[in-house]
């Protein structure tokens, strides 16, 4: 090349850069579409459901009359189901993650477990519903109860918790473990005193993200046959007599937020659509709050940790 | 000329095995007797660094450097690590523009049109189309050998198959790689050995006829045999293109370059003909570095 | 040591050393016990898979005792709740494929564009803000998206296409596509960002623009990761339930026309589960046969993904 070619080059560059600009605009618009969809969805629900967002909406049972219907049984149900989900998925998932990272030797069994976790993450949620219908509802005889629903969602988010735990553990440098082993600690002592505490923020992030997914899951809960019209609350977990704790609620019928919303959405009357919007607004707020917490924790951990 | 150069290279490589740097200066004298240095005198200036400073954020990495780069000659930048030699090299094709917080001051003028490469009005893409660069670690694209070499032409919009075929062949021949890959042009480039990959990266630059070719420690990731083949190649290229090479290996600088610049802590300590710098440096710092007392 | 001192040692309480040795067996037992517990937790995931396969296969087995596999695969009608029941999966399959295709036509170009934009074009500050935002978008429950499709997107489409039904696969598919964008873009972006900088520098040093570098160097280098992102997107679309259940209608039509309403495999399962079918009836068994078909589809997608990943493994 010599300097006489420069005008030619300039022309080529100009053309190439035009494509750069076109793409940059396209990329920006694609992002904008995502953002605008989110805003439209949020604003539309807030606007449509605004009138229904009164204190009574939270303290009323569902009703045949739209104006008096509320989400009391739905949010209480969601809360209790989430409790069962957390109590099943967190210990199992964290333990499985610890096993795979700290204990498992590289062999066929470990490989099978690892491939299995990856594949489970890709199984559609409705299939978990079928599993629960066959195993929990009829196989174990738990019926269409809070226990069945909670365990179903627990299995559903198990891969999320396992993967989060493993990633958090993997980010702990080897020299931390060596320092502890060097002092004569056993594997369990290293795990309990170092691995688990240091990976806690990462695990917590994964758990919250998993829970926010579980709280919005509708299909598997419908599949186990959860009733959609529940005008009662499950038995209180705290009893007046010894031992002051009751587990009757586990066997109770229930509804949850997304099912209540689905129920209202599938009704043609305008008034019920308002209820659906209001319930959807609350549901989105709940998942947003959980996701935002998770993002916040992750951001701060990433900023603060210096190995 | 080329054959004598190769001979000299093999002499030189034996010298490399001896630990004392002084034996290199001896080797260098033999180089002079081959007449290599004689071509130095008449070369016009292709690029001129003028009072150039560079900042990474607040850190002043290069301090008012001025340096000529002679046309169709090899200029080597040497100095201990962290001296800024790579930073200076990367300024030549505006690589620093890829990262935020970098700032240039002064000028690098490319002749004959006298363009200041660093001027904000000059498009870095234009600079990079005129000036090729070969990196420390071979970085072939995840494409076939053919497509790697054709890349520069393709981004210029060249779609004519026979033009591409010709230019790819020329470039591969120019990089002394053609005979090795002739029959597998459409194999992935990553299947080549490290030395072949580096020659492929050189061919990739040659395909677009750059005015200046930058080498950023091109052999530091290669074994001695691959290193020798790259050095041979640089010797062959010196007739066709202006070359600026960063190296941490002083023997290499002595072997391949016509001019040498010694840099230390972001400053240019000494610049001159390679023979002069290695045999008779004017500054004590240069001598200390070259004789291995420091660095 | 001489004899007297050993004799006196024998009469003394046990040495500290032997004390430790005594503890070792207990410690060993405890360590083993904990390891077994952890292993048990890890095997729950395997049990889940076994459970899924067992439930689907055993119930489907009963189903196929009544309905021949051949007519399940070739019958073009799916009317399990009619007096004259037909059990042909084709209409449900057509619904699933059509909605998924619409979703992918939305999600793959947009998701890829966003990924390239964030990875190669956007300033770091923009990326830091946008990425969590996309994550939030991915975390919205699908029932909410279903409501959005039904009350916002389909009415908008009806303005553009007169005579469009209030339930259709186009509206459901578009919203499903938007719901999938975050998965595709975030995974594809991770793959592109993992491409080492020296690869990009090679292209920029030749005078490549951002777009040329992105399309010709970064994307080929990240191909296996990008394909994985697409596969995940497809398998999400195939298994997605609530959006189609709410917005695509509930009639099993054998059609590939996105303007019509139709039922997907997953939506059929929801429809049956909402009703009151007795355990053990043919209708009850049919949802497991449908579920098995769905599972086989996503499983083969995962398999394809695995093969693609191996074939286009990153070379850098």
UniProtKB/TrEMBL annotation, chain A:
| PROSITE patterns membership | ABC_TM1 (PS50928)
Membrane in keyword set: yes
Q: Where in the cell is it found?
A: Cell inner membrane; Cell membrane
Question: Keywords on this record?
Answer: Cell membrane, Membrane, Transmembrane, Transmembrane helix, Transport
Membrane topology (UniProt) = Multi-pass membrane protein
Q: Which residues form the ABC transmembrane type-1 domain?
A: 75-294
Bilayer-spanning residue ranges: 21-47, 67-100, 120-140, 146-165, 219-239, 276-297
Q: Which family does it belong to?
A: Belongs to the binding-protein-dependent transport system permease family. CysTW subfamily.
What name has this protein been given in UniProt? Phosphate transport system permease protein PstA
Source organism: Aromatoleum diolicum
Recorded name of the encoding gene: pstA
UniProtKB/TrEMBL annotation, chain C:
Q: Which InterPro entries does the UniProt entry name for this protein?
A: MetI-like (IPR000515), MetI-like_sf (IPR035906), Phosphate_PstC (IPR011864)
Q: What organism does the record attribute this protein to? A: Aromatoleum diolicum
The similarity comment for this entry is: Belongs to the binding-protein-dependent transport system permease family. CysTW subfamily.
List the PANTHER family: PHOSPHATE TRANSPORT SYSTEM PERMEASE, PHOSPHATE TRANSPORT SYSTEM PERMEASE PROTEIN
The principal localisation class reads membrane
Q: Is Transport set as a keyword in this record? A: yes
Where does the UniProt annotation locate this protein?
A: Cell inner membrane; Cell membrane
Magnesium recorded as keyword = no
Known function:
Part of the binding-protein-dependent transport system for phosphate; probably responsible for the translocation of the substrate across the membrane.
ABC transmembrane type-1 domain residues are 93-305
Q: Which domain of life is it from?
A: Bacteria
A Pfam family reported for this protein in Swiss-Prot or TrEMBL: BPD_transp_1
Topological category with respect to the lipid bilayer? Multi-pass membrane protein
Q: Any idea which UniProt keywords this protein has? A: Cell inner membrane, Cell membrane, Membrane, Phosphate transport, Transmembrane, Transmembrane helix, Transport
Question: What are the transmembrane regions?
Answer: 33-57, 89-118, 139-161, 167-192, 213-232, 282-304
Q: What is this protein called?
A: Phosphate transport system permease protein
